[in-house]
Design brief:
The chain is an all-alpha fold. The chain contains 31 helices and four strands. Helix 8 packs parallel to helix 11, helix 24 runs antiparallel to helix 25 and helix 29 crosses helix 31. The C terminus is likely disordered.
Length: 593
């Protein structure tokens, strides 16, 4: 009987034998066996160490100190890494003082230990710092004292490791720098009041890592002119790629800028930090390929907080504005101007990639649109820079530089309150032309964004000649759109119908059946179905839209089940109820059928 089965109890003497056998097997020549044994030792150690297994830590420390037994060092480090991740606040204060000297010896001895072992030792240090940080709220004095005692030797080694430039996209070449970045992040986040001078000592080497890694990132990731197929995963399943390394750098810089003491230390270098941040935000060759193939992915990555240097860079720029206010805005505007100027120089020199830096400058400014609009009101001349950047794009080939044109549309939409009406009207006309033309999908995405924002603010007297064409083009796009792009087109259609006023009613017989079909096909998607209903509301179908909204509500399954789609030969869709008609059904039939 499985329910009543009681597993046999292992005697104390048998436990001693099992624990001893496990320890003596940690230096097995097979890496997978070492990992399995390490996991078993760590699991037992969580329960038995130190009371019932006092010899565990001395044995592991002795094993990692035996330089002649490389497998033993690996097995012990793997076991310690697993053990340090899961120990509670009663064990960590006992573990760290005994463990740190051995770990430090490995980290500081490149002539005795290979880099992979030094990286593992740094990983254990990171786990210990993280655990001490989580304890600092309750045991503040004890954890700070413990951390302070290790700080000087750690910072010294961190500086030495970070002083080595990043020269390759291969993770093996910068794995130690990655672990140092993680350690520093935990230090600053969990112990923000540690002596400023000690932490400041590592900022210079950190900057060198940042700058040297950009050169590699630019060649191997942005331009893809070098082999960058070096994405791997560490033993914990975390991604090991140059992109993840740069994102870790951005997270650390964001934390440093957010620390009031350290922010003062780096204040003199904020312009350079903003410049490199914008440079890192250039569209990569992989993004170009992916977004060119899939417009839905482009829209999704633009709208969502994705795991990328572009998003991480925007978070850092936001933190710079928060921490430095006017000085931060000055730094970012100047950095954007420098990047824009460099892009023009690259263009004149015949570089095929000149547009990337131009687009990154616009992207950076667009991510700070709210702050910069307020800055313009406070006396900053944001307008001239923006207008110069967007007008410089006019005349460049839309097929050659689709992402640059898409970004220009987006930026004009975000800054429509700043940019002159003449430029806004020009971009509105360009957007109307783009959605009706054979242009790359990203350009149509940008054009839709511009139309959605600019149409409500446009000069209505100039609309009669354009609005019907815009509505017709959007209806055509609606038939082609799916997923993310469908949501965008519906949103743009709402704006166009609202701006068209009475003219929109003349095209209603064509639009309504198509919108109803979209609603029926995507009723399970609350965002798209509600967007479709709102379009119908703008067209005047208030009674029908009420019933369609009811059918979209998750707990209204009976309403939803009563709707049936009927596709007639002309491709028009109507809806009806299978149940007995009531007043609301008659209203819905009269306006939709």
């Amino acid at each position: 009987d499985e329910d009543n089965f009681v597993p046999p109890v292992v005697s104390a003497s048998e436990k001693v034998v099992i624990r001893q056998l496990l320890l003596t097997s940690l230096d097995d020549s097979n890496g997978k066996i070492r990992t399995a044994i390490g996991m078993a030792v760590a699991a037992i150690g969580q329960n038995d160490w130190p009371e019932d297994w006092p010899e565990l830590l001395p044995f592991l420390l002795k094993l990692i100190g035996d330089q002649s037994n490389g497998n033993g060092v690996r097995g012990a480090l793997r076991c310690l890494a697993l053990l340090s991740d899961d120990l509670d606040d009663t064990c960590i204060p006992k573990l760290v003082p005994e463990l740190f000297p051995s770990l430090y010896r490995i980290i500081s001895s490149p002539h005795l230990y290979e880099n992979s072992l030094r990286s593992k030792a740094l990983g254990i240090v990171h786990s210990c710092i993280s655990m001490l940080g989580s304890m600092s709220g309750v045991y503040k004095r004890e954890t700070v004292n413990l951390m302070t005692s290790m700080l000087d030797p750690l910072v010294e080694q961190f500086s030495i490791i970070l002083n080595s430039p990043v020269l390759s996209p291969n993770p093996d070449d910068w794995s130690m720098q990655m672990e140092v970045l993680k350690c520093l992040l935990q230090l600053i986040q969990n112990f923000p009041r540690l002596p400023e001078a000690k932490i400041s000592a590592v900022l210079g080497p950190l900057w060198q890592t940042f700058v040297s890694s950009f050169k590699v990132y630019h060649l191997s990731i942005i331009q893809a002119s070098e082999n960058a197929d070096n994405v791997g995963y560490d033993s914990d399943g975390s991604e090991r790629s140059l992109e993840s390394f740069e994102i870790q750098l951005f997270e650390l810089w964001t934390t440093i800028v957010g620390n009031s003491m350290l922010a003062k230390v780096i204040a003199g270098n904020i312009k350079e930090l903003a410049y490199y941040t914008i440079s890192f935000q250039q569209i990569t060759e992989e993004q170009v390929q992916n977004w060119s193939r899939d417009a839905n992915q482009y829209v999704a990555d633009e709208d969502d907080v994705t795991y990328s240097c572009r998003v991480s860079g925007s978070l850092l720029l936001e933190e710079i504005v928060t921490a430095y206010e006017d000085y931060g805005i000055d730094a970012i505007l100047e950095a954007s101007q420098v990047c824009f100027r460099e892009s023009r120089e690259l263009k004149q020199a015949g570089s095929a990639d000149w547009w990337r830096l131009h687009e990154a400058s616009l992207f950076a400014l667009g991510s700070l649109s709210e702050h910069l609009c307020e800055a313009q009101d406070s006396g900053y001349n944001v307008r001239d820079l923006l207008e110069q950047m967007v007008t410089d794009i006019v005349g460049t080939g839309v097929h050659q530089y689709p992402f640059l044109h898409a970004r220009a549309f987006s930026v004009v939409a975000k800054f429509s309150s700043l940019i002159s009406k003449g430029i806004c009207e020009q971009y509105l006309c360009n957007a109307a032309h783009a959605i009706a033309s054979d242009v790359p999908p990203p350009v149509k995405v940008g054009a839709c964004r511009a139309l959605a924002e600019l149409l409500p603010e446009s000069n209505q007297s100039s609309m009669p000649n354009n609005i019907m064409g815009i509505l017709s083009s959007l209806v055509d796009l609606l038939r082609q759109a799916s997923d993310e792009t469908l949501h965008l087109v519906l949103e743009t259609l709402q704006s166009a119908i609202k701006s068209g006023g009475e003219q929109s009613t003349s095209i209603e017989p064509v639009i309504s059946p198509i919108i109803l079909d979209v609603w029926a096909q995507h009723i399970a998607d609350p965002f798209i179905s509600i967007d479709a209903v709102e379009v119908l509301e703008f067209l005047g179908h208030q009674e029908c839209s009420w019933m369609l909204r009811t059918a979209c509500v998750p707990d209204s399954s009976n309403n939803r089940d009563n709707f049936i789609k009927i596709q007639d030969p002309a491709g028009w869709t109507s809806c009806r109820f299978t149940g007995p008609p009531d007043d609301d059904t008659q209203k819905c039939s009269s306006c939709c059928g």
